[in-house]
Amino acid sequence: MDKPHANFLSDHRFMINIIPIPAFEDNYIWLLQYGRKVVVIDPGDALPVIKVLQDNNWELAAILVTHHHDDHIGGVPHLLEQFNVPVYAPEYRDYSFTHTPVKEGDTIHLSAIAQSFDVLWLPGHTLDHVAYVNTQYLFCGDVLFAAGCGRLFEGTPNQMLNSLNRIKKLPLSTKIFCTHEYTLKNIQFALTLEPSNARLKAREIKTTQLRQQNIPTLPTTLEEEIATNPFLRCSAPEIQHNLALNSSAELDIFTAIRQLRNHY
């Protein structure tokens, strides 16, 4: 699995680094570092987080949670045994660990890393799912993936489509941090629907090269996703033609794409 990169993404205005910590087979726990202070998002496993903190002499300042699946929260209790830090988790579900519930419209001020995030409620993958967004970054858990979107374990196609359409309204430059390395398979699926998409074909080449070197394909950008992600491209004529759903409603097209991806 991938190794974290010491200066994976740096914002030199605030000297913040955003680092992917690999976990399990294909998860990323996102670590936001400012000086010696660190915030982690969706720590499904505590051990790799603790190792990175110890190796770099960093101090955990807060934990953000997007939804209740164990590969996103499994490490939270262990981390809380060692670190007395606030945890922010969706208000829309009960969590067993001590936390501050957050909901649509809330803003979280993380002074330790000089960042603030607005909370978006984005149901679809799960009913409690939230994302954390500011003018530069979106931490979206399992709602939007690079060239894909999350399975509908609890929500409806209409809920997920609405959530994705909300994301589409963000600035095109928004850097998108999802939590799974599914990019190459998602692109390969997307090409079955839109094989003439030149951006998509170029993205497959670049993604293949990155994965051959065990380099993460994330973050992506909203601009890249709108150009290549079939779940954001329901109006694309080639996709509609290949689904035999020309001029169909957006929801019908989205539902068909999701069903096909479930079995790809």
Molecular structure report:
Strand 9 and strand 10 (130-133) form a beta hairpin. The chain has one domain: Metallo-beta-lactamase, Chain A (4-Layer Sandwich), CATH 3.60.15. It contains 9 helices and 15 strands. It is of the alpha/beta class. The longest helix is centred in the last third of the chain and has 15 residues, at 198-212. The strands form 3 sheets. Strands 1-2-3-4-5-6-7 form a 7-stranded mixed beta sheet, covered by helices on one side. A 6-stranded mixed beta sheet has the order 8-9-10-11-14-15. Strands 12-13 form a two-stranded antiparallel ribbon. Helix content is 33%, strand content 25%. The two termini are 23 Å apart. The protein is globular and about 55 Å long. Helix 5 (183-193) runs antiparallel to helix 6 (198-212). It has helices at 46-56, 70-73, 76-82, 157-168, 183-193, 198-212, 222-228, 237-242, 250-262, and strands spanning 9-11, 16-23, 27-34, 37-41, 59-64, 87-90, 100-102, 107-110, 115-121, 130-133, 137-141, 144-145, 148-149, 175-178, 220-221.
